[in-house]
Amino acid sequence: MSTIIDRIKTSFFASDSFLRYILFPFLSTRIGLLVVAYYASGNYLSNPTYQKYVDRGFFLTHLFPIDIFSRWDSAAYFSIITRGYSPSSDIRSVYSNIAFFPLYPYLVKSFGWLGLHLPDGFYVAFGILLSNLFFLAAAVLLLKLVTGELGFSETVAGRTIGLLIFFPTSFIFSSFYTESLFLFLLVAGTRFAFQGRWKLVAVTCFLLLLARAQGIVAWGIFLLFYFEKRKWDFQAANRDILWLFLAPVGLVLHLAYLYNMTGEPLAPFAAMTAWGRANASILENLRENLASPYLDVFKIDLGFTIIFVILSMIIVWKWPVKSLGLFALSMSVLPVASGLLVSVSRYLLLVFPVFIYAGAKLEESSYYDAVRVVLFSLQVVYFAGWVNYYWIV
Q: I need a labelling partner for 372 at 20 to 30 A (CA). Which of 33, 263, 383, 387 fits?
């Protein structure tokens, strides 16, 4: 009887934690963003560069509550769903969807694989639904990772998720983007690694490598994690390591498919140059991004990057699991490695160890609440710009 009661208590506690730390702040901020979107549309100076979208009245679909969560990269993913991969005349200099990875759009395509002709609005709505569900699942796993494998209190776990939800670019987790899916796979893979379930780690790496270019970093970190758990005794490696080395098979097949189409052996990475990534002019890019005399998104994102790099270095130094710190450091540095500050704060959303560290250090409720107010105030400004076709992320 006591065992049954304990299980009921545990289930209720878990449910209460989900409502308190995840669902309530998530839904309340999303409702707030909808209000911001309705107010900002028509009452906010639109970006004249993209006046065509303002005149048309939508980006991907006429459904306003759905369309406001689809901008910029959403169009590339949408084109993969509806038309497949389409190389441009020169993928290195002309925009193409070759630079984007297939997992998310292929998941969104869903019933379309059965030959059903579905309206565009369905794909956009379904993609946004998937993004929200993947984020909620990621938040649940993160709560368990922080309180379980990492040994922090539930309060720290709640603050970790709170900082993630209130971060200025967190609206991306509800958008037609890949961040929610990638975060879910990252946290799931990390928990599996702590538990020594390396076959499942390999499965998550297989999917991560098909989700985003940063999957390569994650795969490399999980390899380090594997040997770190064995205290760098390479003779202690067993057949589990083979599963990790098989993880890139999916990516290799995808590259082979795109090679037949473009003649480029590393087509996605070659195509990134057209989007400004992998550009050798690092100092020139930084100078251009920071040239404005005003406080703009580039300067704010550079400030966040500096904070994340510093905190990542502290994590490498202080945390016993160095792989997590190295992951945080590499993921914090990579977005600015080309000198391009566009979308940096969106990439920082995936650096979950920094959010955990910050959640642990903000012990005073007043400090934590003040940080949340600042972060969400920025999110409101960012989202208002995003809705009105400014390239925020």
A: 387
**pTM of the full predicted structure?**
0.92
Q: Determine, yes or no, domain membership for 289.
A: yes
Residue 351 covered by a domain: yes
Q: At 349, which amino acid appears?
A: L
Which of 390, 392, 388, 393 is closest to 68 using CA atoms? 388
Q: Is residue 150 part of a domain?
A: no
292: in domain = yes
Taking alpha carbons only, the member of 54, 83, 59, 79 closest to residue 69 is 59
Instruction: Please count the structural domains in the chain.
Output: 1
Q: Which domain, by its residues, includes 328?
A: 279-361
